[in-house]
Amino acid sequence: MSLHIHISIAQQRLSLYDDERVLCSFSVSTASRGPGNQENSGCTPLGRHRIRAKIGAGLPQNAVLVGRRFTGEIYSPELALQHPQRDWILTRILWLCGEQPGYNRLGSVDSMRRYIYIHGTPDTEPMGEPRSHGCIRMRNSDITELFQQVPTGCRVLITAE
To answer: Which of the seven top EC classes does this enzyme belong to (predicted)?
Structure first.
C-alpha cells in the first residue's frame, strides 16, 4: 500500500490515496493569502512534504492545542468569546516537513520551521474557501478520520491547482 495525500489549493480539497485509488476526500481551508513558501508570508506552502509528527492521539474532539500541547481546554463558543484573537488549532495535528531544499525545506522557506500543519478547526469555520493563516484546516471529525489512516512519514503533495 502506497498511501499519500494530495492537497489542491484551487479546489480547497484534501484527498488520501492508496496508489491511484482515492480512499477519502475532504473539503479544507488553506491560507487566505494563497500559496507561497516564504517564512512569515501567511501562505500555504507548495510542493512535496511528509508528515513529520502526529500530535493529539487520544484527545477528545475539540481539544485545544497551543504550541503542539493540549491546554486542557475543550473548544466552545463561550471559550471563543473569551479568546477572540486565537487561531484555533483543535483535535489533532499532522505537522508537515518539506522535502525540497531551497523550496520548502531549510532557510527562509522551511515548512516545518513555519509550523505548517493539517489540523482541526472550529466547526463554525467555513470549509472550501481559503481562510487560514497558512495551515490546512479541516473539520474535527475529518482530521480525526485522516489521523487514524495515515502514518508518520506519509507523503503529502500540495499544489496550487
So the answer is: oxidoreductase
Active site residue 6: no
Q: Cβ of 77: how many Cβ atoms within 10 Å?
A: 8
Exactly one of 49, 97, 119, 154 is catalytic; name it.
119
Q: List the domain boundaries for the chain.
A: 3-159
Per CATH, the homologous superfamily of domain 3-159 is L,D-transpeptidase catalytic domain-like (2.40.440.10)
Whether 97 is a known active-site residue: answer no
- Residue pair 48/155 in contact by the 8 Å Cβ criterion: yes
As averages over each run of 10 residues, the pLDDT of the chain (161 residues) reads 94 97 98 97 98 98 97 97 94 98 98 98 96 97 98 98 94
Residue type, 105: R
Q: Which of 43, 49, 97, 135 is catalytic?
A: 135
